[in-house]
Amino acid sequence: MNRIKRLIRNEKLFNTPYIPFTSDKFHDECGVFGIHGHAEAANLTYLGLHALQHRGQEGAGICSSDRRQMFIEKSMGLVIDIFSEKRLKRLPGDIAIGHNRYSTAGTSSLKNVQPIMVNYSLGSLAIAHNGNLVNAIELRTELESRGAIFQSTADSEVIIHLIASSREDTLHDRLIDAVSRISGAYSLLLMTENEMVAIRDPFGFRPLSIGMLDGAYVVASETCAFDLVGAKFVRDVEPGEMIIINDEGMQSVRAVPSPRHAFCVFECIYFARPDSNVFGNQNVDAMRKNFGRELAREYPVEADIVIPVPDSGVPAALGYAAESGIPFDCGLIRNHYVGRTFIEPRQSIRHFGVKIKLNPIRKLLEGKRVVVVDDSIVRGTTSKKIVKMIREGGGAKEVHLRISSPPTTGPCFYGINTPTRKELIASTHSVEEIRKYITADSLQYMTWEGIFKDIPDPEQYCSACFNDKYPVLCCQEKAEQFDLFT
Amino acid sequence: MNRIKRLIRNEKLFNTPYIPFTSDKFHDECGVFGIHGHAEAANLTYLGLHALQHRGQEGAGICSSDRRQMFIEKSMGLVIDIFSEKRLKRLPGDIAIGHNRYSTAGTSSLKNVQPIMVNYSLGSLAIAHNGNLVNAIELRTELESRGAIFQSTADSEVIIHLIASSREDTLHDRLIDAVSRISGAYSLLLMTENEMVAIRDPFGFRPLSIGMLDGAYVVASETCAFDLVGAKFVRDVEPGEMIIINDEGMQSVRAVPSPRHAFCVFECIYFARPDSNVFGNQNVDAMRKNFGRELAREYPVEADIVIPVPDSGVPAALGYAAESGIPFDCGLIRNHYVGRTFIEPRQSIRHFGVKIKLNPIRKLLEGKRVVVVDDSIVRGTTSKKIVKMIREGGGAKEVHLRISSPPTTGPCFYGINTPTRKELIASTHSVEEIRKYITADSLQYMTWEGIFKDIPDPEQYCSACFNDKYPVLCCQEKAEQFDLFT
Amino acid sequence: MNRIKRLIRNEKLFNTPYIPFTSDKFHDECGVFGIHGHAEAANLTYLGLHALQHRGQEGAGICSSDRRQMFIEKSMGLVIDIFSEKRLKRLPGDIAIGHNRYSTAGTSSLKNVQPIMVNYSLGSLAIAHNGNLVNAIELRTELESRGAIFQSTADSEVIIHLIASSREDTLHDRLIDAVSRISGAYSLLLMTENEMVAIRDPFGFRPLSIGMLDGAYVVASETCAFDLVGAKFVRDVEPGEMIIINDEGMQSVRAVPSPRHAFCVFECIYFARPDSNVFGNQNVDAMRKNFGRELAREYPVEADIVIPVPDSGVPAALGYAAESGIPFDCGLIRNHYVGRTFIEPRQSIRHFGVKIKLNPIRKLLEGKRVVVVDDSIVRGTTSKKIVKMIREGGGAKEVHLRISSPPTTGPCFYGINTPTRKELIASTHSVEEIRKYITADSLQYMTWEGIFKDIPDPEQYCSACFNDKYPVLCCQEKAEQFDLFT
Amino acid sequence: MNRIKRLIRNEKLFNTPYIPFTSDKFHDECGVFGIHGHAEAANLTYLGLHALQHRGQEGAGICSSDRRQMFIEKSMGLVIDIFSEKRLKRLPGDIAIGHNRYSTAGTSSLKNVQPIMVNYSLGSLAIAHNGNLVNAIELRTELESRGAIFQSTADSEVIIHLIASSREDTLHDRLIDAVSRISGAYSLLLMTENEMVAIRDPFGFRPLSIGMLDGAYVVASETCAFDLVGAKFVRDVEPGEMIIINDEGMQSVRAVPSPRHAFCVFECIYFARPDSNVFGNQNVDAMRKNFGRELAREYPVEADIVIPVPDSGVPAALGYAAESGIPFDCGLIRNHYVGRTFIEPRQSIRHFGVKIKLNPIRKLLEGKRVVVVDDSIVRGTTSKKIVKMIREGGGAKEVHLRISSPPTTGPCFYGINTPTRKELIASTHSVEEIRKYITADSLQYMTWEGIFKDIPDPEQYCSACFNDKYPVLCCQEKAEQFDLFT
């Protein structure tokens, strides 16, 4: 207990949800991709990771097997910068798994980039993990007390140690043994010299889908990766299901009981790509359009133009415009050359903030009543700058902000990078207070009911960030930590 | 004469217009930015270059002066990747000029990245050049025969040598002397320890504007750079005008007579950012919207949805949709993490081409009659892939391609990276032949008259790529070279 | 058993003695240096490692502690290339240990560079190891079967895992527990946030000495490191002794019983620096001079000049010359800019071999009868080239080779990089056969008795490489492996 | 005149002899090697440069030609570190020249590394220069006033510009034209696509020899490079001679009249390798032995042991010992892993100086009267530390320093890195004063007559550093600069 607090204070451990929150957006923390039985395994994984780049930009890695040996290449950076043709040639074989990791300040470093590959008593093993465990600290403490030596601060390494120290004979049994110990969110890919294994936590927090290409099985976080490599969607990995893919084909095993589902609704609102289908093959773009339409119905306004905050606000803005009959336009130009390393000039010209990324077209906005559609407000600082930019730089007469999701009041412990509760503006301020802070003429958030008008079975979703109903409770110590950190 | 041909064959010289044309878009080759008399000169130049990144992604550089000494930093890559805080600190002083260079294969290398900085008999001099000289080979041959030694293959170096070998006493007179010798396109920034000089060719091919920030003069290729640094637009540098900015303020000198103007119409159609105002403060986005509206009037079609080829096709598509009444939507999702180093996987899965960048939303397009709006067709290969993607991946019933510019039939010699005439599909094929090639249900190009319905004074523009009327003729040898290369 | 063989075949494990033997010299595999309680701890460790550079050139590392946290920096390369001033500043604190690692091909990589630093249940721990364990494979197999995950292929990591999984309460007890399990050679330095611990195996194979500087304790592989930092020699760490150095001072603990000593005689013959004193403060240069004198008495020859193979043959050659009365000279010039990365040109000019390093002075050797003194012959290939060089390049009339050690017939398992038995020319050839092979006019090796005329107590030394009397037996499996590898 | 001073003050120009003098040894500034007509041209040049590494360690480069094109690779660092196998493969063809550059602080940078390769009106040209021009500033100023643009601060670039701007038709005539303008020391190699040209200044300051290998001509600064590649010495390039080597063979042209020779005597004393033969095939080791013998005759002393300052003092020490009958030994052990980047620890443990490189063997020196032989004293600081080290660290009873050259009182302007006159201890102090400063029991320098007892024709040598008789006078301005700098 004392040790746990010390660990946390020393920032030695588990970077979620305690990682510094450096942007003003929630962010997914990972994407995974794997393929078994294809001569171009590593190349296709490279393409798949590229398609999933939006799920993590800090670093990426690919592990492959030529059936005798496993190979691994990983680095900080974007997929396209990391993998040269030469480097891809160092990944021979017909099995490969890959991982994108989200960019965070602080504890980010190469040793935390996945896949993690180790040698243990049964041979070689690689793992790629999307999600976040809520009992990782406790498990790590216990494992260390039994002699385990950890190399990274990633919670995913706990799973490896649980497998290595399991008394079961086979990897499959050891993996079931391991997941019986862990709580939280995990869409996992594992790989040995001959086999690929996919497993998804019983709540199904993060998406994970199975596809097929030239007779080879493919597994990916989102279906947009299938589109790029030319694979056909087969079905989702079910919550609690373990999928074993080897030369005998695909085998399904019930690994953990799944009393309820808790799909992340924010995947629908913001994280997933519009061209992906998630959680039972629902199209993300279509959902967002509907959110926009519903938002227009719930919160109409007299205005001359509807513009999105690009790029994520586009579908909802199109929906809002269509429903309201107010013309849609692109009033903010986005500079896509912005990376995460942008240097803010010092001294007098500081605080460029959002100007580095966005610039309004004055000719278009001048004198107009403008509806701006965005998907969410986190701390409010960015929204404030955007409203100001549209009014001052763009010359708008009125600025009406419409958010295509309910107010976000709670942090996520299941694989999303969020700030502490205290930093979430909606957890401590009323909508009117927020409106004043961001200086908009009007501000409205979508209702929770609006969201679920188009999505069947709201109880199948996790909406904890909107309503504090956390599907998996953290231990008491964890709760205290939150106090510690809020 | 023999030597010139040898030089060209050996690819030793002048990479424009003979550089390999590796993308399927025309591309601007440079952006320039400079500021005189501001404590944050290098930092602001860094921001300015970032705003102009779309004009060149191969490499960038900044040169600054602290009034005693000049400093220079340049590298291959994007502005945000090149300049760390540490590196910006190595650029002290209150004067700075910077340059973005377009990424081309082959002769691209660090030695061609600008600004070029040299020591010569009058002291230090730096130069940043947007444009292309048509008589550079002849001048280089002449200069070499008099003993000059060239370090790069950039045509801009010719200007430096003309200045260094001029018999005039002052830099200003030497610069006037130098530009009296050169033909072609040049929007130039020069810099010494104490002064910044801007000069624009008599035709005014490329844009170049003057702004003001905190009492300091700023010069940039496009006004979007002013928006980012917070500068106010003052006026354009006039064709043939030399602007001298020093501690006495700004001085205007008529450097070369300017019998006619020849503003590049493609800046309006594709190159410049929509939020910039060019050629007498005309808004680019507004022009493109008008092109789209005119296109809808010229070439209407029965359809269910209008989608742009992102991002450049967006304004024209919005115009087309508005005029036609067909709903606008974003049916192609663009992956913005694509850089120029993307490795195509080998063997069976080659030819990903445009899929790396774009993916259709099938849910949106399936069974629809789709109008796709793009700004131009170069070789047709990309358009063919996009049509196929919308039909097969997206499931569209019909695909109607509308191009918001006339057929491009001629290469550019004034600073745009274009393929040879033979490679321009519209120079050798009829519109119907192109339609068949790209497998569209219909294809229509904007007329030349349509373009100039909204732009006053068509004769002030260069439309050589549409109509072969080249404002500055190349010498006979050059003409032969074109045969050589076509 | 099966698994062990597999591990070895896959080259996954323990790079000694199975590392490719790429030079034609035996080589020490490590040097260690540590200091406790000095404000310049890391800087002095840097100097100490520099003085010990001859013991390992593959890579080096330093770990330091500022009493709250431990810091580590390590890289491939030479000490002077690895540590910049900036990097040394990242090693604050008053405790530091460092390690030099020998350059070997194949399994050499950064992850094997020491110190190894880990977090385990008792906190942070760093280790630096000179020597080689003979039961590392067995221990690793056992540890892995209990769930341990290894990160490197270094046998030293076994010690870490034994400490982490020990049931004892304190580090000291856990270390004693750990060394009770390991067999072989180890001169070890350990470090925690507050303490430095030194321990030497019961045989004392490798040297390890204690010094004192400004009231701080220093521990180093050789006393030449004390000379450079200005420390005074105190005494050797005794075989089987554990030395604990903390703020209370130095404490000695008997860690393992030491029934007999087995100091490595090759440290005296070749490895240690001439200016070091080893194994009870005996000067290395003086021992080697005596070897040379004894060699002259045992094997005199009529000759005109005595020359050493530089640099290691110099002391023995001086001794031989002094005793024989034949003039000493430096007839071979050594190029000291040779590193381990020298590229042999391909094709016709291959096989430069020793010429890259040595060149004879023809003016000096021409027509002479030359005695060449070297310290040992490993495979004979280098000796053959040197004899040829002296005869052909130098123009010598006769070449008489004298070796200041007995024929080396057995590989070393205690921390020396040696080839397999089969590759040792003296294990399979008579002296006369070797003489013929290397084309010398005469060849004589020092006798075993000659070596120990000047060194007291031969039974305190390990001479296994001369007489096959291995002080620590490897397990049966190991013996089989040797068959596997010879 | 004013401008010249400004140039010098700004440190913009010619780094010799004004480069910071960072070691306490004179140093040669370059080595050159070239070969024409051998399939392994670049590989052999690599080996040749390695053999000449002692002449310059700052950087190196190789230029090759495959008869159609010229290739160049150069970097900062040692030859063996710069050239990987991959990099050597980028240097195809059967002609190559290479250059080693001496390491100096300050103005050293990649742009000054040679060969310099340029394109000019006659095609491609590469140049490698050993030596120093005394009128480079004047020539540069003149060339710049006529429009020349310089890229480096190397005086060698002046030669290139003189060739480029010459009115002569052929390279040979232009080169003769160019050397008629320059004064000072130059042993030059030039190369075009098909030809190699060697030229040596009329005084012959620096050595330059011709060899032959497999029918190909080789040119190198020293013959030790011939030994390594297996070439046979043919003859020296004569002072004032131009050697043209092409497919027709070797042609000799008298390029400049050579009224007197001025071979650098310091090449014999210290710079050249002992295994080289210089200035008419005289062996360097033999000359140095004779210096040592003469020194013993001139300045005998009662002592127990003679030791060299390694490595350069070895031949003279052997000579001194042989003549005096006092035993020779190696009492100072040199650490050969010292590079030029050694970081001196800060604070309390500063001033390690020579200890980083040398350590005395106390057992050998304790209580003895020691003669130490070195080749020269520059500023005296190192000698002082060595005397102290031998007395304190080594425990010597008496320390007698013997220098195998006369007192160095003047700086060199012909290609040697020397400090200013004021810094040369012998220019301002008597021998007795120096003895006191370095705390030796006795100090003696070789006489000028002693040096030339064994070398025929002293008037053929430049001894300006001993006697101020400079063979080529610098212009008046230069003389003033010296005041400026002394």
Topology:
4 copies of one chain form a homotetramer.
Chain A: H1 2-9, E1 27-28, E2 30-36, H2 41-51, E3 59-65, E4 70-76, H3 79-82, H4 85-89, E5 95-101, E6 116-120, E7 123-133, H5 136-145, H6 156-165, H7 171-179, E8 184-191, E9 196-200, E10 209-213, E11 216-220, H8 224-229, E12 232-236, E13 241-246, E14 249-254, E15 263-264, H9 265-271, E16 277-278, E17 282-283, H10 284-298, E18 305-308, H11 314-324, E19 332-334, E20 358-360, H12 362-365, E21 369-374, H13 381-393, E22 398-403, E23 416-417, H14 425-428, H15 431-438, E24 442-445, H16 448-454, E25 461-462, H17 464-467, H18 476-485
Parallel strand pairs in A: 15-25, 18-21, 21-22, 22-24
Antiparallel strand pairs in A: 1-23, 2-5, 2-11, 3-4, 3-5, 6-7, 7-8, 8-9, 9-13, 10-11, 10-12, 13-14, 16-17, 19-20
Helix pairs in contact in A: 5-6, 6-7, 10-11, 10-16
